[in-house]
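DM between two lab members

TW: hey, do you still have the Cytochrome P450 2L1-like entry open?
JB: yeah, one sec
JB: this one, 214 aa:
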Amino acid sequence: AVLNVIWQMLASQRYEADDPVMRKFAAILNENVDIVQGPIFLLDVMPWLDKVTPKFLKNMVTKDDKMIDNRDAFFTMFRALMEEHKKTLDPECPRDLVDYYLIEMEANKNDSESIFTQDEDGLLNLLGTMRDFFAAGSETTSTTLRWMILYMANRPQIQERAQQVLDEVVPKDRLPSLDDRPQLAYIDALIYDVLRLSSLPPTGIPHCASATVH
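TW: and the structure you got?
JB:
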């Protein structure tokens, strides 16, 4: 469900849970999560290891090569999706983030200072942005929801209060929206408390000082 929300935002696409594309995509994401929780974090906290460790040993211990393979698999899928969007793009009626990005790339094609250029760097920025949406938004959201379910199951009185607040603010004939948020301070506080109490990323967040996406 979380992946479909991100796909809808990025590319106006949704998949069934048993769709082969979605299953493969989810499997790659899960594999990356498992790798990030392993020894590869050492390359982030001690970057000098990347320079002194033989490549075969680094790949064997950290699975860095598998992360690169998975990145390339994502980019292959994203490139195909971008080409499909180019064929059906209506600048007067953009459908999603990819459409808006393509429109900006066309508008800034002669601006060498823009990040929306139509060369390979501009394309990699788009591909990297799409990858970041999934990398940062899928597992973290799913894990937060699982923690929320656990805490609500253990604290039924809090769950009942949350439901009462929602019923008081949100009509029965629609779902909550961001417009309701000012009237849902209790729900806001509840989510923040789940984030405070739970354990989301088991290690530090990987980072880099370079603007490049590859």
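TW: got it. The mean pLDDT is 87. Residues 1-140 form one domain.
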